[in-house]
Amino acid sequence: MTGPAAAEPDGRARRRDGHTETVPDGHADGANARVFRLASVLLPYPDRELFDGLAELEDAVRGVPRGARTRLGRFLDWLRATPPLEAARHYVETFDLERRRSLYLSYFRHGDTRRRGAALIAYKAAYRAAGFSPPDDELPDYLPMLLEFAAVSPRGEALLRRRRADLEPLRRALAETGTPYADVVEAVCGRLPRLRRREAEAARAMADGPPFEEVGLEPFAPPEYLDPYPRGEARP
């Protein structure tokens, strides 16, 4: 899986594989953009490149607002103190083995139902409208990708704000487990408006887990989400 983007001086998005892509409508690199950009780098699977870039990330965290700085700094402290294999195992246990902690946001609202297909199409349309070109090997509702979009485009931040209720079940589930990843998602939520009444009601309805529809469907979640030992993890 290709990693999310970091910042380039000219405002382009630089992915972990070294490629760059320009977002036509641009985005001022304000406080929100910096937090979203950092979260987009920290939430994917913790590979060697992430560990190699810890010093750079720690420097970047010093430039974000205090609340986010505290949370992201605490996460980076944990990452630096954790052996890579242990961090990878924790990531799989946190995100890949429990559907209530999925990083695919439309899954909370729609689960494996026909409606999720329409939601994924809507994400793709929003990306295309802003000139954003996500990779073909990832679903468009993947949270790190949406955060990358929000970091480089006003339309991306607007989309993230509209999806705030879909983010709430993940935020709550991570907080319940006490995982360090809760700090990353809390840092993002701290830069978004508080849930309105209707959004809070929708979030509560999603709290027990996504709906499921078996008849005539294949799951929308990607194979690595369904596989309990993804990304080269050793099998028992």
TrEMBL record:
Bias kind Basic and acidic residues: ranges: 18-28
Domain of life from the UniProt record: Bacteria
GO MF: metallochaperone activity; unfolded protein binding
Residue span of region Disordered: 1-28, 205-236
One Gene Ontology term from the biological process aspect of the record: chaperone-mediated protein complex assembly
Keywords attached to this entry: Nitrate assimilation
Classification via InterPro entries: DMSO/NO3_reduct_chaperone (IPR020945), NO3_reductase_chaperone_NarJ (IPR003765), TorD-like_sf (IPR036411)
Annotated protein name in UniProt: Nitrate reductase delta subunit
Organism: Sphaerisporangium krabiense
